[in-house]
Design goal:
The chain is α+β, with helices and mostly antiparallel strands. It contains 3 helices and 9 strands. The longest helix has 22 residues, at about 125-145. It is globular and about 40 Å long.
Length: about 150
């Protein structure tokens, strides 16, 4: 995995041991998202996930802190869905845009490039970035359970 940060932009690259179509589907299907969405220490119950996977559609989640029950809402509007290649959404409150690009590596799995622009200052902190990376770890572990692969 690699990371790159500029003043208001974050970039992450990660390889997952699963086919591109499955990795993509997991990112737009609430039945999958509930298993890994959010950093370690939070859960996102299925009833707290809304996905309208088309341009102009809503992507909304409410994560719940496993320790104290605090809730963290996230909402965005899909800008682009190109299955199984790209997902783009924008947070209407902050203006942050997230672009996830899925690269088929054949038997080697799928590489995801995540580019976030207009990232609010609190989300650029080392703690926030570390939390985001744990969500990618959770996603990798979940993919192993459903694809029979191994973590990379």
């Amino acid at each position: 995995m690699s990371e790159h940060t500029t003043e208001s932009e974050l970039n992450f690259t990660r390889v997952f041991a699963a086919p591109r179509e499955l990795v993509f589907r997991c990112m737009i299907d609430p039945e999958h998202l509930t298993h890994f969405w959010g950093p370690s220490g939070v859960s996102t119950p299925r009833e707290n996930i809304k996905v309208e996977a088309h341009p102009g559609g809503a992507f909304e989640t409410v994560m719940v802190n496993d320790a104290d029950g605090s809730e963290y809402a996230m909402r965005a509007t899909y800008v682009e869905i190109v299955e199984p290649e790209r997902i783009v959404w924008t947070d209407p409150d902050s203006g942050m845009t997230t672009t996830s690009t899925f690269v088929d590596l054949g038997d080697a799995g799928t590489e995801i490039h995540i580019r976030q622009t207009n990232v609010p200052v609190p989300m650029r902190s080392p703690e926030a970035q570390a939390g985001f990376l744990t969500s990618l770890d959770r996603f990798a572990a979940y993919l192993v359970t459903i694809s029979g692969g191994s973590e990379r």
